[in-house]
Amino acid sequence: MLRDADWVIAWDPAVRRHAYLRLADVVFERNTMVHVGRGYAGPADRTLGGRGRLVMPGLVNLHSHIGREPIFRGIREEHGVPGHHMTGLFERFQAFGPGDIESRIACLELAAGELLRSGVTSVVDIGAAWDGWADAFARTGLRGFIGPLSSHSSGRVFGIVTPA
């Protein structure tokens, strides 16, 4: 249980929208949220203080390239192209990228950690299909979709991935 969180963004079924709660408790039983609101009086195996915390639903990233983007760090940011408003987003895309499976897995794991740390829990990873992509994605703890850029990859356009 998280006791007396300063702020909780919770679903209010009476008005069918999210609402802000102050000093609310959030209680889990295994992986299921069983209570969101003030003054939980039931049992809890472990209680954490919620002061100074915001509890909110996980964010959804609908467009990402986490299986390749981290490898461009320090390259795209440093080599802007005037015709592209000083962004390096387009000109090095085909010339440099994660070629082997180990590099792709490293990119995926790094980006997944950053996304989870920033509150993203669901993501669409769009990229060229590679062997082991779905398995590596499932190990990240994120849930979401993998979206091969071409439909001839394994005959599927999108695959749903749930955490391992």
How is the secondary structure organized here?
Layout: E1 2-12, E2 17-29, E3 32-37, E4 48-49, E5 54-55, E6 59-64, H1 101-117, E7 120-127, H2 133-138, E8 143-148, E9 159-161
Parallel strand pairs: 1-4, 1-5, 6-7, 7-8
Antiparallel strand pairs: 1-2, 2-3, 8-9
Keywords:
164 residues, alpha/beta, 2 domains, 5-stranded mixed beta sheet, 4-stranded mixed beta sheet, 2 helices, 9 strands, 35% strand
Q: What can you see in these coordinates?
A:
This protein has helices spanning 101-117, 133-138, and strands at 2-12, 17-29, 32-37, 48-49, 54-55, 59-64, 120-127, 143-148, 159-161. The chain is α/β, with parallel strands linked by helices. The strands form 2 sheets. Strands 1, 2, 3, 4 and 5 form a 5-stranded mixed β-sheet that branches. α2 (133-138) links the parallel β7 and β8 (143-148). The longest helix is centred in the middle third of the chain and has 17 residues, at 101-117. It starts with a strand and ends with a strand. Mean pLDDT is 83; it is low at 151-157.
Given the structure, what is the number of helices? 2
The helix/strand order is EEEEEEHEHEE
Unreliable spans are 151-157
By helix and strand content, what is the structural category?
alpha/beta
**Distance separating the two termini:** 24 Å
Largest sheet: 5 strands, mixed
Q: How many structural domains can be distinguished in the coordinates? A: 2
**What general form does the structure show?**
elongated
